[in-house]
LRRK2 ARM repeat domain-containing protein (Magallana gigas), 460 residues
Amino acid sequence: LQLQQEIFAFLVPVLAISEKAQKQFIQDGKVKIVLERMTTYLDCPVIQEHGSLIIGTLAVSKSHRSVLERLNASQTIVTALLHHEKSDRIHENGQIALTNLSAEVYGNKYTVVKNGGVQAAITSLTKMSHNPDVVDLALKLLGNLIELDAVCHSFLEDQGLDVLETLLKSCTDCRDTEILVKNILIHLASTKGITASELDAIERVICTVPDVLQNNNGEDVYLVQFYEKVVSTVNGCKMFVDCGSFDKMVDLLTINSTTYDVQFHGCKVMAALAMNGFNKKRSSEVLSLIHNAMRNFPGKLDLHIVCCGALCYLTEEQDSTSMVFLHQHGMSTLMTTLRRFQDEHRLVVVAFMALENLLKSVAANEDNDKLIKSYDVKLIEGYDVLSVIDIMSRFPDVVDIQVFGCKLLTLATDDDMKKELDTTPLLDILDRRKSMQDAVVWARRALQRIRPDLLEAEER
């Protein structure tokens, strides 16, 4: 036994510094011997400690992980960890090994779970709550394993949330622990088949995080990220609304009007609700919150893409909602955003779509498919058709921008046509019919509106 301990202790630093030695060690079948010795000398802490570290070291390389699991490495590690409940070093090395074995290789996650990986993680969290290093490693292992829906369900059924809540209350001033727990809680929200009561329980634990760690805005940021996960799932939007979370989300956005993370993730929630039609009763209120976010964070591209996307859904065939936005000088805000990010095609597409909805809503003389003569000037103050044409010319190969740009030009008013409108983007589309098939119809309609003479000449 003494000799075995010395050999194991010798192997650890050698394998840690030499990839060549690791490869040779595996090829020569030495891993099987290590696992057999760990099984034989289960009561020996030194063998278990160094054996776990050897497996963890070898599993750092992704190419080794499947080989190790075919030898049932995780089962040996879990057995050692559960047998030595009070050994900090065995728990630490064991969690390192299990975390490495289950990282990135999807098949390994199943075998680690089958061999008791979740139980091992929970055991470390409960028995080693005094050791922040072990706690964080166990949380990382859980983070790997909860990618499997079955693990999420069993974790919830086995009072895993109580373990996390107790952990938060006992591990104060641990920022890393807070982040790891938060990520687990947020991921649980996307579990297939999760119930409303389980979502309520997760939300309750999330709300304990800032109370324990005194993190400014922590609860609010975590909650909106949690809500974002919820609404991204099947039936998530319905559960979100039915559980009364919609009101909470509105309050969060209102109270945290200058907190970027809350606004960004909160607007993503609102966009998802609008896309799925769960905003109807409070569209005007939601739109006002979206508008405030755009004005409060003018330079944040990702936020503005989300907000413009939300505007598309909120204003689609919703004239009354569009009016709310426009009466708040929304057209000016949207055009400012468009000009600021005119070289960002992702934003341009959704901004053009939102503009189309808004212009349709304020058409003063719209009658089915008849052409629009004029708009309420005050409502569209800031809109500039010349900017639309200029931006179209910047993206000649982006079909969506050309299509929606053409649609905007079909909505040109008589006043717009008094300006010198450059028709080059439209004529270019007609010249490239094969690559711009989706845009050709709209280019013809736009020319018919602003320069019918050119369309007639082109057709001849």
Remarks:
- The radius of gyration is 30 Å.
